[in-house]
Amino acid sequence: MPLFHNQSIALERAEGTEPIGWILWLMLMFFMVPLVAMLMVTFKRTYSLRKLHFGVTVLFSILNFAHLVADLLVQPIAWHQIVLMSFLFFVGIVLNIVSFQWLREGRLHSLLAQGHPAGG
Predict the structure, then answer these.
(1) What is the CA radius of gyration of the chain?
(2) What is the pTM of this model?
(3) DSSP-based three-state secondary structure for 68
């Protein structure tokens, strides 16, 4: 749940506040995209899906880093949010590395399946 900096999120449109429904929809999409990607790679492991998976992990790392920087600019700094976003950014970098390795492994298997030598 985002830190709305003293804004109530109990109601989508509370008296005297700005509507936040669009933020809640964006949050839903932000959480659903990686879950759908995980489901997709669980059932199908094609090379094109591996490329998409790698792209999603890179995109989410960039977005998490941007969120971390934005949280550092808010005064007063909410240190629990900084710790959370730092952790998520670190996990994202690890996922980037693993996803890249998985992408390369898929490329090798794809080449072998097409009859190319292992070194090529």
Answers:
(1) 19
(2) 0.70
(3) helix
